[in-house]
């Protein structure tokens, strides 16, 4: 790769990052100014505040890496472990997940004798 194409590629990447920042900052600003003042009684924000809010949210909740890279690595590692398990180990692992995951289930589905109560509205 010659030096001139290297510079063009670098300028293109900087341009894409700048465009993405402008779009994301504008979207956050528009959504905040549309929802936060009438719903929560907060002040409107500027573009730079919206961009700062987005960056702060990524640092606090999403990290500084790209979207989804860590989850892909975990999924790949779990898939490798699953491939090397015997059928008995797979069944034990699946049973443990079913017993420990509570998403959308009552405790009685897990065989807990203390959970004879049901939710009544």
From TrEMBL:
Positions of the UniProt region annotated as Disordered: 102-121
Keywords: Membrane, Transmembrane, Transmembrane helix
Top-rank lineage group of the source organism: Bacteria
TM regions (residue ranges): 12-35, 47-67
Membrane among keywords: yes
Protein name, as recorded: Uncharacterized protein
Lineage: Bacteria, Pseudomonadati, Pseudomonadota, Gammaproteobacteria, Steroidobacterales
């Amino acid at each position: 790769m010659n030096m001139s194409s290297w510079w063009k590629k670098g300028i293109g990447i900087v341009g894409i990052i700048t465009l993405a920042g402008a779009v994301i900052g504008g979207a956050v600003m528009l959504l905040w100014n549309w929802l936060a003042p009438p719903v929560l009684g907060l002040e409107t924000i500027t573009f730079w505040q919206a961009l700062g809010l987005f960056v702060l949210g990524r640092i606090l909740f999403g990290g500084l890496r790209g979207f989804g890279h860590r989850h892909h690595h975990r999924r790949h590692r779990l898939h490798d472990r699953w491939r090397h398990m015997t059928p008995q180990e797979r069944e034990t692992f699946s049973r443990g997940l079913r017993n420990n995951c509570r998403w959308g289930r009552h405790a009685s589905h897990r065989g807990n004798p203390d959970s004879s109560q049901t939710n009544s509205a």
